[in-house]
Amino acid sequence: MNSRKRLLRWASGIMFVLGVGHLSLLALIAGEAITGWVDRGMWAAVPLVLADGGAAPTVESLRNTVTFWAGPGSFAVPLVLLACLTWHLAGRGVAVPAGVGWALAAWCALGGVLLVPSPFFAGVVSGALIIVAARKRERPAAARGQGANLA
């Protein structure tokens, strides 16, 4: 396995663990609210109309909204999708653009500063791995053979 592929696979593994870990932790903490969505129907997660026609949201509706935005509406789902895409591209030998790594690193650094303590900073490592992988140049097969002869 070449070094670019290895770097991208590590980056995607970190992103995948962060995303799935976030969703799993939410399921453990707010599992009752999530199962309530299933019982009450598809639109129960973030209702468009306040319960009981009241002018102010209830504690339950606010808790329900926070659970949605902390789970399926959070960064976790796109992060898992980005991890799967990065893994797939690494397998095909395609480099992920360095801009994706820079954006991921900046987003995770900002999130880590705003939400301390959190595992956001592990995302900075993932972004840095993508940047390094994008900067790596693949040596042609002929150059690899010549390097072996010189050693």
TrEMBL record:
Name the UniProt record assigns to this protein: Uncharacterized protein
Keywords assigned by UniProt, alphabetized: Membrane, Transmembrane, Transmembrane helix
Transmembrane intervals: 7-30, 66-90, 102-134
Transmembrane helix recorded as keyword: yes
Organism encoding this protein: Nonomuraea muscovyensis
Highest taxon in the source lineage: Bacteria
